[in-house]
Amino acid sequence: MKILSVFVDESGDFGTNSKYYLLSFVFHNQTNKIEKPIQYLKNTIVQSSQKETNAIHSYPLIRREGIYKNIKLTDRKSIFNSIVAFMRYCKIQTKTIAINKKHVSSSDQLAKSIEHEVNNFLDNDKKFFQSYDKIIVYYDQGQKQITKILFNTFLDNFNNVDFRVVKPQDYYLFQVADLTCTLEMIDLKKPALSNSEKIFFGSMRDLKKNYLKVLYKKRLD
């Protein structure tokens, strides 16, 4: 049986705390094995003195927040680079829906815009999804609006979909969905990056060469 795993993560909120709302999808054909990239990633995490059970959260790594508050820049970059390398070596594809919230006047309108964009995407790429016998959508139910949108859109378009609630630390590809949101946001904002982002990534040339180039190659065309 040919199975497609779909890992979904978001960046932004339905209030006024963010300028953009991003919804990222990571697609993995389960016949493409990822054991070797996972082992490389695990080894890097252990070498960085981080617990293997901790999920990698890319934006806190950049901003030195949460569990990364007391970790020096070189070690944070090492962890970040390891998940980027994992993304590079895995046979996956990504898709991100980005909405500038200045074009929506309420949380309900934002939800409708996201659902519309997801529906359009699923419809336009229907042949891609229909090439699989089964689709499994993984989401952590972090936002109830997105949970509802995923159910509505996938079930409206396909009759072979299962939904799984995930814990981020249990699935490295879910952590790649988090990374995808981060890189897409950076790509959207550039060159107007924050001071912490400029310090972390260095020059714009390094950002494009070492990180955004990986993102561009994974996008589902």
Q: How would you describe this protein?
A:
The chain has helices at residues 35-47, 58-63, 73-89, 107-124, 126-130, 144-157, 172-189, 195-201, 204-218; strands at 3-11, 20-29, 92-100, 134-139, 161-165. The model has no long low-confidence stretch (mean pLDDT 93). With 221 residues, it is α/β, with parallel strands linked by helices. The chain has nine helices and five strands. The chain starts with a strand and ends with a helix. A five-stranded mixed sheet has the order 3-2-1-4-5, with helices on both faces.
Sum this structure up briefly.
The protein has 221 residues and is of the alpha/beta class.
Structural class: alpha/beta
Poorly predicted regions are none
Distance between the termini: 25 Å
Radius of gyration: 17 Å
Total strand segments: 5
Order of helices and strands: EEHHHEHHEHEHHH
For the biggest β-sheet, the strand order reads 3-2-1-4-5
- Please estimate the helix content: 40-55%
Topology:
Elements: E1 3-11, E2 20-29, H1 35-47, H2 58-63, H3 73-89, E3 92-100, H4 107-124, H5 126-130, E4 134-139, H6 144-157, E5 161-165, H7 172-189, H8 195-201, H9 204-218
Parallel strand pairs: 1-4, 4-5
Antiparallel strand pairs: 1-2, 2-3
Helix pairs in contact: 1-3, 3-7, 4-6
Quickly list its features.
221 residues, alpha/beta, five-stranded mixed beta sheet, 5 strands, globular
